[in-house]
Amino acid sequence: MAFGWIDEQADVRRRAGLVRTLRPRPADSPLLDLASNDYLGLARHPEVTEGAARAARTWGGGATGSRLVTGTTELHTELERELADFCGFEAALVFSSGYAANLAAVTALAPHGSLIVSDAGNHASLIDGCRLARGTTQVVAHAEPDAVRKALQTHDGPAVAVSDTVFSVDGDAAPLAGLAEACREHGAGLVVDDAHGLGVLGTGGRGAPHAAGLAGADDVVVTVTLSKSLGSQGGAVLGPARVIDHLVNAARTFIFDTGLAPAAAGAALAALRLLRREPERAARAREVTSELHARLTAAGLEAVRPDAAVVSVRAPSPEGAVRWAADCREAGLSVGCFRPPSVPDGISRLRLTARADLSEGQIERAVRVIGETRP
User: Fold this and answer.
1) Alpha helices in 191-306 (DSSP H)
2) Is the pLDDT of residue 346 over 80?
3) pLDDT tens string 133-176
């Protein structure tokens, strides 16, 4: 029977407690949200939603084509210019998603004969980029510049190290300065995904590479998403102009994909301008993160010390994590639930996001619910 193997795999997932289901949310959910990646609370900000609406009214509902045909509007180039300037890079290129941006950066910068050194904790989009690239990939120990250094010593040709700046599972930060030093010793490039750093780390939320003093470096390329701190959708690659020009000509997820919808570009641009005007939002997100972590650990929960806006709380098992998240939901709190294969270490956990717009009362309520529902 066609696709008969699907039933077998579904059975395996059920027995392991790893079935995933879609849960459509209403427009006006009563739940306290600690599950989304809306770190700065901008997704519903009036200026951001008006930016989306104005762009749709001006440019239409869709981009109408790939970026190289009809999918580049003046709005896209305006967003690219302001995003590059804000983060401290020479140029930027906007994609339809952060996933597409990561695929583009890794595949286009790791040609045949090159070496890709990839952190063991990298996001799936970076992993898929490594799989699709024509270079050879070597996976190294998590957040270990010396492991990167040793891997680079084995290769004489072009090379690039690839890492998240803030890892999405536990919220820990990569040692960017150490990674850059290891790469420079061997003439290798550094590609980092700042999806969870932009808007939270760096001066006024300019990102982890900016905080590490790597912004604008000619050997550093950064990918970002517009769907987290900027409350919109899409992604971008930032770096030297010659690298961005290369992506325009070589990155398949840029050349063959429809451009980002104007509404998403308009929303992201509005959010970026708002962050420029209100840089304290980034600091508030970090404050909320620290407070959440302190209260959770004081309550006897095993929470990993966060470096940005992700707080990870360990669960006893995949089934226990699912039940815990469901019980939180019943109590009015929405939290993330990470289980294998989404977690590289096989340890299930609740994943909380510390939004800048959370009040003290909401933080207290969230910690109380998590503590009362623990398995």
Assistant:
1) 208-211, 241-250, 252-255, 262-277, 280-298
2) no
3) 999 999 999 999 999 999 999 999 999 999 999 998 889 999 99
> Is 166 in a helix, a strand, or coil?
strand
Q: How far is CA 229 from the centre of its chain?
A: 10
CA distances from 359 to 10, 123, 214, 279, 283 (A): 41, 30, 34, 18, 14
Rounded to whole angstroms, how far apart are CA atoms 98 and 194? Answer: 10
- pTM for the full model? 0.95
DSSP code string of 328-367: HHHTTEEEEEE-TTSSTTS--EEEEE--TT--HHHHHHHH
**Could you tell me which residues come within 8 angstroms of residue 297 by beta carbon, excluding any fewer than 6 positions away?**
303
Distance CA 51, CA 48 (A): 5
- The rounded distance, in Å, linking the Cα atoms of 328 and 332 is 6
Mean pLDDT value across residues 301-313: 94
Contact call for residues 144 and 121 (beta carbons, < 8 A): no
Give me 148's structure tokens: 């990167």
pLDDT for position 338: 87
Which is it for strands 189-193 and 220-225: parallel, antiparallel or unpaired? Answer: parallel
Beta bridge partners of 93: 237
Q: How many helices (H) and strands (E) does the chain have?
A: 14, 12
pLDDT for 217-240, tens place per residue? 999 999 999 999 999 999 999 999
The count of other CB atoms within 10 Å of the CB of residue 315 is 23
- Is 106 exposed, middle or buried, given 0-12, 13-18 or 19+ CB atoms closer than 10 A? buried
Model confidence pLDDT, tens digit, residues 176-216? 999 999 999 999 999 999 999 999 999 999 999 999 999 99
3-state secondary structure 101-127: HHHHHHHHCCCCCCEEEEECCCCHHHH
